[in-house]
């Protein structure tokens, strides 16, 4: 083997953010021929990340459709990748996390007996409907993967309990921490005037994202009612809600919060703007998985608007609290962080268990060792 041919596949903004630093490291390695395939499961938000990291995909399936279903995404990815894999015959396909692109990409590779590397492997809630469909996407991907790049020792232990061989598991840290080295600037100015006009030194700015499928309906409505109460009861609080483009989410958010003072309802920001907003804000409330990893790196407490999380390390380390979608629980927990500096400091100064900025390098080293190119380069993240 002269070079290892690796095709990296992703389709959504969160995947792209976390795979971008890895793509950069793969491109630097002389023994790897690196190619990128995007499915464009999310088109506009994906393109923002590609532009930020200057990644030009070799293949673009461009599958996104209005009101797309999980079945439609899965079948379009399978059909699109079949032709690419037959043409390229890669040695390894890399997928990330828990999206439908992830599962379908791994399955397409399995059908052609191509090895699969799963980045951010081993996260579990052990409830197949929470988060839905992400929990099963991740488990099913793990079932066909050959190399498992677990971000933490806890994720590794999950895989071991499921019968994955220890020699196939590599604890690397999370690549999202690598990405933040490219994006966060202390003197950053936003492209959005509304964000630049906020006084981050005087206001306690709360950044919010909430859009997960299991929260649609009553969950999102309860979250919005809680946010309204928090702002109305705390005159020093300003709220920035990055509202998902899906009408199922957007319509509810604007109905409940659209006329509330000191609430800014904005479309999702690009990656660099999001990371710098996180860096400037007081705290974060979210049902996202990725923000639970990113925010602690910046010393920002996170309240998770879910009942379960596949990232228990953050809860254990004290950087994250689960508050679910109960209005009173959200309000009371947020108020404690707003008014109680001791509690706030405890969360903001907790150690981030998710990485040190070297995850991508560890993954590349593990791939090289697996294919027999060099040994000793991979050192487990502790």
From TrEMBL:
InterPro entries: UDP_GlcNAc_Epimerase_2_dom (IPR003331), WecB-like (IPR029767). It is an enzyme of class 5 (isomerase). The keyword Isomerase applies. Residues 24-367 form the UDP-N-acetylglucosamine 2-epimerase domain. Keywords: Isomerase. GO terms for molecular function: UDP-N-acetylglucosamine 2-epimerase activity. Its EC number is 5.1.3.14. It comes from the Bacteria. Pfam families: Epimerase_2. NCBIfam families: wecB. Belongs to the UDP-N-acetylglucosamine 2-epimerase family. This is UDP-N-acetylglucosamine 2-epimerase (non-hydrolyzing). The gene is mnaA.
